[in-house]
Write a structure and sequence with these properties.
Rossmann fold, 3 domains, SH3 type barrels, about 375 residues, five-stranded parallel beta sheet, Elongation Factor Tu (Ef-tu), domain 3
């Protein structure tokens, strides 16, 4: 029995005729499932098996391998994001195939190098966005095309719905776990092959399903950190991977007055307060980083708010955005709610985003993702104020 998702009402403010995309009826359709060894992809595997798919589990090795010869395996916090042993266990439990594909080279160039380059240039990149675009979903889709598989699936919390015969990307039903922000750079052509089995579920229900698979709860705690930053924070990683990031410069106020010295612009991001080492009788925050002068501008919290920003490097599912101004909800970081804004197309193919309410600490290098209700319209990369 092939899964037929139930119809839901769209949360769209402007568009209608959206419904859950049904899987075409066929005998044992094949699906390549990205298996990280975590709870979400493991439950996704179980669901797909129940729905009658021929599931082929694939773990993409993006970082260091697990040391299976060690007497005591490293804890999950000290490994990359993919737990090969657990993925293999789940595959065996469900009776599906499993293999490990080495994607360390594209991960290095497309994610880590991009991460380092961004911070060295004084921006705040989002490696999870780039990883989905350049490594995980891209690799799985290419492999599915090569092998003639019918679908690609992952454990992401997002949904693919049908809008007037076209697949569209939407938020997950569990808004607290929604990961559509990290998926906005997907190729439109990939959507027709994508399945997100847990996207219509609540996380509590996913945990219940995981228990039935016999998965060890202590190994399934979710990491909130960058997968390749296994020790300390991102600054520790920068120091080790890019020693040139240690390039002292000046802290200055908005008028250019020198307030002290910093360790290097790569270690500071808008909104940051801790670790400045500046005592001025008031709380100071990083307003912006100026790579041209190797300075970090500090100011009081009320100077962090901006009414707009420029967004480039666009990936749009709704191309009409470039034809005329559009009202949308805009999410400028994963952990904050989307805010109403006007998207103003520019002659150079970029967008100016004008927020109805000023936003705190807009960070160049981060993503601005556009929504119409639950539907993802697209997004792009926030640029420095001076750009």
């Amino acid at each position: 029995m092939i899964w037929q998702p139930t119809e839901e009402k769209s949360a769209s403010k402007t568009f209608s005729h959206e419904r859950e995309r049904p899987v075409p009826p066929m005998t044992k359709p094949t699906v390549l499932l990205g298996m990280s060894g975590g709870v979400d992809s493991s439950v996704a595997a179980a669901i797909l098996v129940e729905q009658g798919f021929d599931v082929q589990g694939v773990t993409l090795q993006v970082w260091e391998p697990e040391d299976e010869s060690a007497a005591v395996s490293k804890r999950w916090e000290e490994r990359g994001c993919c737990k090969v042993g657990l993925a293999r266990y789940v595959a065996k439990r469900l009776g599906i195939s499993h293999e490990v594909i080495d994607t360390r080279a594209p991960f290095q160039t497309g994610v880590i190098d991009d991460f380092l380059t961004g911070y060295l240039a004084g921006t705040t990149p989002n490696p999870c966005v780039r990883c989905n675009e350049r490594v995980k979903l891209r690799s799985l889709y290419a492999l599915a095309e090569e092998r003639g598989a019918d679908f690609v699936a992952t454990g992401h919390y997002a949904r693919i719905l049908d809008r007037r015969g076209q697949p569209t990307l939407h938020r997950a039903c569990d808004t607290r776990k929604d990961q559509s922000y990290f998926l906005y750079r997907l190729n439109q052509a990939w959507l027709s092959k994508l399945l997100f089995p847990v996207g219509a579920m609540q996380k509590t229900d996913v945990w219940t399903r995981a228990e039935s698979l016999g998965l060890p709860a202590e190994e399934l705690k979710e990491s909130q950190e960058i997968c390749f930053v296994s020790q300390g924070d991102y600054r520790t990683f920068l120091q080790a991977a890019a020693p040139e990031s240690k390039k002292p410069g000046n802290f200055v106020d908005d008028e250019g007055n020198i307030l002290g010295q910093h360790e290097g612009i790569a270690y500071y991001t808008p909104g940051q307060r801790r670790g400045l080492g500046i005592a001025m009788g008031q709380r100071l925050y990083v307003q912006r980083v100026v790579p041209e002068t190797q300075t970090v501008v500090l100011g009081p919290e009320d100077t962090l708010f901006a009414s707009g920003c420029r967004v480039t490097d666009l990936n749009l599912f709704e191309t009409s955005i470039l034809a005329a101004p559009v009202e949308a909800d805009v999410k400028v970081r994963y952990a904050t709610p989307a805010s109403p804004a006007t998207l103003q197309p520019q002659a150079d193919g970029t967008l100016r985003v004008h927020f109805a309410t000023p936003q705190r600490a807009l960070s160049p290098g981060q993503s601005a993702v556009f929504y119409d209700g639950d539907r993802v319209l697209g997004g792009g990369i926030i640029q420095p104020i001076s750009a």
